[in-house]
């Protein structure tokens, strides 16, 4: 029995190590271009600099993504519980029109950006943040440090707890 528990503990720690949270973004990530809702091209680094001094939750999503749509009410709850947090949404939609229609349809409150990459999740930005699922959430603290690098819609309790500690 002890051997089974030990093997289970090793397996769990191996899994948790493989999902280790990065503490900073790569140069490739920071240099990636996103488009603002005003159709201006900026780097992801510039996007982050806009929120310096504020806690930021970044969601990578798409209007065609069923899990993203299902998570929209959860984001609204999170926003209600954490009104002092800034929210930035980066869309992987295939066109600007679909992106803007999705934002309007789901009434997402926050700042909106579009990643104009035909490869979507498998594109340069997606690869640089190890994007393997959407919606994907990242939390950045007031100093600009990455607090949560990888979270998905099943991690809302963890995200909420983290946001509460950053107030």
SSE arrangement:
Layout: H1 2-18, H2 27-31, E1 33-36, E2 41-43, H3 44-50, E3 56-61, H4 66-81, E4 86-91, H5 96-106, E5 111-114, H6 124-128, E6 136-140, E7 146-151, H7 156-165
The gyration radius over C-alpha positions equals 17 Å
Label the overall shape.
Answer: globular
| Mean pLDDT over the full residue set | 89
Uncertain segments are 5-18
Estimate what percentage of residues fall within beta strands.
15-25%
Strand order of the largest sheet: 2-1-5-4-3-6-7
Number of strands: 7
**What are the secondary-structure elements, in order, as H or E?**
HHEEHEHEHEHEEH
The separation of the N and C termini measures 44 Å
Class by SSE composition: alpha/beta
Could you describe the largest sheet, including whether it forms a barrel? 7 strands, mixed
Helical residue percent? 40-55%
* Number of alpha- plus pi-helical segments: 7
Please sum up the structure shown.
With 167 residues, the protein is α/β, with parallel strands linked by helices. The protein has seven helices and seven strands, in the order ααββαβαβαβαββα. β4 (86-91), α5 (96-106) and β5 (111-114) form a beta-alpha-beta unit.
Would you write up a description of this structure?
This protein has a 7-stranded mixed β-sheet. It has 7 helices and 7 strands, in the order ααββαβαβαβαββα. Mean pLDDT is 89; it is low at 5-18. It is globular and about 35 Å long. By secondary structure, it is an alpha/beta fold.
Keywords summarizing the entry:
20% strand; 43% helix; 7 helices; alpha/beta; globular; 167 residues; 7-stranded mixed sheet; single chain
